[in-house]
Amino acid sequence: MSTLTIRNLDEDVKARLRVRAAENGRSMEAEVRAILRDSLATGAAIATRNARDFEYTGVTVIDPWTAPLASN
Whole-model pTM? Predict the structure, then answer.
């Protein structure tokens, strides 16, 4: 097993993670593992400015600050 450290996590995100973990009867660590596992399994995309952090995960990365806007 490996260790992942997440720095500079917004307190609001941490609080919502804590609530979500409690709702699912899991620790925060187990909840994060479930979120990552589920998002990778479904081929989900992640929106972040830190595309390099996800370069080798297989997840589609969308940088909302540079991605072109979808036209209707």
Answer: 0.57
CB 21 within 8 A of CB 30: yes
Shortest CA distance to 64 belongs to which of 45, 43, 49? 49
Helical axes 28-41 vs 11-23, angle rounded to 10°: 90
Between CA 4 and CA 55 the distance in angstroms is: 15
Instruction: Give 10-residue mean pLDDT values along the chain (72 residues).
Output: 85 92 94 83 76 77 74 56
Q: Would you list the domain boundaries of the chain?
A: 1-41, 43-72
